[in-house]
């Protein structure tokens, strides 16, 4: 702060003080009778000023004394620093003068290092002499299955070996020397001397792996032995972790570390699990579908038995953090997945392939296998994932469909050959209970086709649709082959009018069979229509509604469903196709009108009622286009009915409503039953 600023600050402070004093005096001496106390006030203020001045002088004196003392200390410190600098310069000069003579001390340093090593060796001699005997004792303990005692002896031997190697590494030659050959030779000598210790460690590791492979048998017969093995593994795992957590720059690591015995334990456990589950092995010579089914059934039983034994026998012997049920479930899952890929890599007949697909999609995740109630609380099936990848499953479904088509074609040909031979026999055709001629051909064909469809339906909608398409395709081929057989049958009759003897009767039987075949096909095709009709109401549940009124895509979605369904119906021959299309149109009309009549939707204003009528007109146009697309040129029911109801909502004169309703009931008398 400058002198001018200080002067201004002092003047301001003085002005404030005078103002405060004047305010105080005017308050105290506001009446004449108070002037007699003026002397008393003057004495009190004089005493206060004197006290303040004395305190200020005392504080200033103390501050000045502190400054003097600090300056004196700084002078002393400065003098000491100069002495230290002088001493450091003298030490540096002495170091430079004696640097050349330090190399003469190298032999002494070497002797010191050798002395330390010899001292360590002398101190370790009693323990080193006992190493061969201790190795033999440890081997005997290991062979007699006293695993904990054997591990204690092994740790003592390993600690001694590691201590000797560490000391050799620690007291290596100085950094100025590049010759560490003596240390290397000494380390090699120690390694050779303690070679039996590493062998003991490997033997113990193999013993632990063997116990893990037969863990179930050991847990049943001698659980304490398995618990001892787990305790040893946990101890070694801790030592491995501590070793990994050591200094990053540590130049020496104990030999044989890390051992990874826990990892080896789980690998051996997985091998034991898979050996038990996959026993006996599947032989591919002359393998039939029944053999595949039997093998999968037995595999299912062994997996369930293995998982139950793991949960009830083995889990109490291992720490909870091993999460053994989940781990064993994954072991089984991965092993089964590999085994199934191996099975599917072979050229399986379609019955065997069906058993595999059924086992994968239905049995595996059911309560009879991985979802078994005895271990469902321990194992989450959803975590296991699919047994085979989705793309591989898709490939197998296509493979099964191709095989079914080939077999259907072969079966129909054989059935037709038998049928043709029956036409030529000298025996009247069979008759049904009504006295009509019939043949068994259509019954055999329909039973064959429907059995395959039912089997496919058990494996899911995807395979069912594929097999249905294959059945329709082969049915068309069947009709072509039947026509060719009839032409051949007629040619044989034209050669000799008396042969076959029952030519006319068999023609009637064939006609009756074709009619029955046509009826059965129509009945099977009507089932999807019935399913669509049962699911139609959810499609119309949002008609009418506020979102529908404001322009949603509900009707467009319904039209897309109609077009998708028509693509399925196109596989049927006329007149079944036209009949089903007409039924589709009727179902759409009924459900649309029922949705309108049963809804609780209320128009809030005449404008909203006009908006609803406009929306119905748009719906009628969309449905008309969709029905025209699927092959219904004129729509006598659906579109006309919707237009008629739309006109009711579009009325502006309420007095005409009863007349319009009467006209609607006359044009469409069945509309009263649609609600």
Automatic annotation (TrEMBL):
Molecular function in Gene Ontology: SNARE binding
What's any GO biological process attached to this entry? exocytosis
UniProt-listed Pfam families: Sec6
Write out the GO cellular component annotations: exocyst
Source taxon at top rank: Eukaryota
What InterPro entries has UniProt attached to this entry?
EXOC3/Sec6 (IPR010326), EXOC3/Sec6_C (IPR042532)
Q: Where are the transmembrane segments?
A: none
Q: Which PANTHER family match?
A: EXOCYST COMPLEX COMPONENT 3-LIKE PROTEIN, EXOCYST COMPLEX COMPONENT SEC6-RELATED
Q: Which family does it belong to?
A: Belongs to the SEC6 family.
Instruction: Spell out the protein name for this chain.
Output: Exocyst complex component 3-like protein
The taxonomic lineage of its organism, from the top, reads: Eukaryota, Metazoa, Chordata, Craniata, Vertebrata
């Amino acid at each position: 702060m400058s002198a001018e600023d200080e002067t201004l600050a002092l003047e301001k402070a003085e002005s404030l003080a005078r103002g405060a004093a004047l305010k105080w005096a005017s308050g105290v001496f506001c009446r004449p009778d108070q002037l007699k106390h003026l002397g008393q006030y003057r004495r009190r203020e004089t005493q206060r000023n004197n006290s303040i001045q004395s305190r200020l002088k005392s504080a200033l004196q103390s501050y000045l004394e502190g400054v003097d003392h600090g300056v004196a200390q700084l002078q002393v410190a400065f003098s000491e620093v100069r002495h230290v600098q002088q001493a450091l310069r003298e030490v540096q000069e002495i170091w430079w003068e004696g640097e050349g003579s330090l190399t003469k001390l190298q032999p002494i340093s070497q002797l010191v290092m050798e002395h330390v090593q010899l001292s360590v060796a002398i101190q370790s001699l009693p323990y080193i002499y006992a190493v061969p005997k201790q190795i033999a004792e440890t081997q005997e303990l290991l062979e007699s299955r006293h695993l904990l005692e054997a591990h204690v002896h092994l740790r003592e031997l390993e600690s001694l070996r590691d201590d000797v190697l560490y000391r050799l590494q620690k007291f290596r030659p100085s950094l100025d020397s590049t010759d560490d050959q003596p240390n290397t030779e000494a380390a090699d000598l120690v390694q050779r001397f303690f070679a039996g210790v590493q062998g003991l460690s490997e033997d113990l590791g193999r013993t632990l792996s063997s116990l893990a492979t037969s863990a179930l048998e050991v847990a049943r017969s001698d659980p304490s032995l398995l618990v001892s093995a787990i305790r040893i593994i946990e101890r070694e795992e801790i030592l491995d972790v501590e070793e990994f957590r050591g200094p990053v720059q540590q130049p020496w690591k104990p030999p044989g570390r890390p051992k990874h015995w826990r990892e080896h334990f789980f690998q051996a456990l997985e091998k034991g699990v898979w050996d038990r589950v996959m026993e006996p092995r599947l032989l591919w010579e002359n393998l039939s579908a029944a053999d595949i089914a039997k093998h999968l059934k037995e595999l299912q039983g062994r997996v369930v038995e293995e998982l139950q034994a793991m949960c009830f026998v083995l889990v109490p012997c291992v720490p909870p953090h091993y999460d053994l049920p989940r781990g064993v479930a994954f072991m089984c899952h991965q092993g089964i997945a590999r085994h199934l890929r191996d099975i599917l890599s072979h050229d399986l007949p379609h019955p065997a392939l069906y058993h595999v697909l059924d086992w994968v999609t239905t049995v595996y995740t059911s309560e009879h296998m991985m979802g078994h109630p005895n271990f469902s609380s321990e194992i989450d099936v959803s975590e296991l994932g699919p047994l085979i990848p989705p793309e591989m499953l898709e490939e197998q479904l296509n493979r099964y469909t191709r095989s079914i088509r080939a077999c259907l074609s072969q079966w129909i040909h054989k059935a037709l050959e038998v049928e043709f031979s029956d036409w030529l026999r000298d025996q009247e055709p069979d008759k049904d209970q009504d006295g009509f001629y019939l043949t068994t051909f259509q019954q055999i064909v329909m039973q064959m086709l429907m059995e395959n469809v039912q089997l496919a339906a058990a494996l899911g909608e995807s395979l069912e649709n594929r097999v249905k398409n294959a059945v329709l395709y082969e049915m068309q081929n069947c009709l072509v082959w039947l026509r060719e057989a009839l032409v051949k049958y007629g040619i044989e009759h034209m050669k000799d009018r008396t042969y076959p003897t029952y030519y006319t009767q068999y023609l009637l039987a064939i006609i009756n069979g074709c009619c029955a075949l046509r009826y059965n096909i129509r009945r099977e095709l009507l089932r999807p229509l019935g399913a669509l009709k049962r699911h139609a109401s959810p499609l119309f549940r949002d008609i009418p509604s506020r979102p529908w009124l404001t322009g949603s895509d509900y009707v467009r979605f319904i039209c897309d469903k109609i077009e998708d369904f028509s693509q399925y119906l196109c596989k049927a021959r006329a007149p079944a196709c036209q009949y089903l299309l007409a039924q589709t149109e009727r179902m759409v009309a009924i459900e649309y009108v029922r949705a309108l009549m049963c809804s609780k939707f209320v128009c809030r204003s005449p404008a909203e009622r006009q908006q609803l009528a406009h929306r119905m007109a748009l719906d009628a146009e969309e449905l008309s286009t969709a029905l025209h697309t699927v092959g219904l040129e004129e729509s006598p029911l659906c579109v006309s009915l919707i237009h008629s109801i739309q006109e009711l909502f579009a009325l502006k004169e309420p007095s005409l409503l009863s007349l319009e309703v009467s006209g609607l009931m006359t044009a469409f008398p069945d509309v009263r039953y649609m609600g």
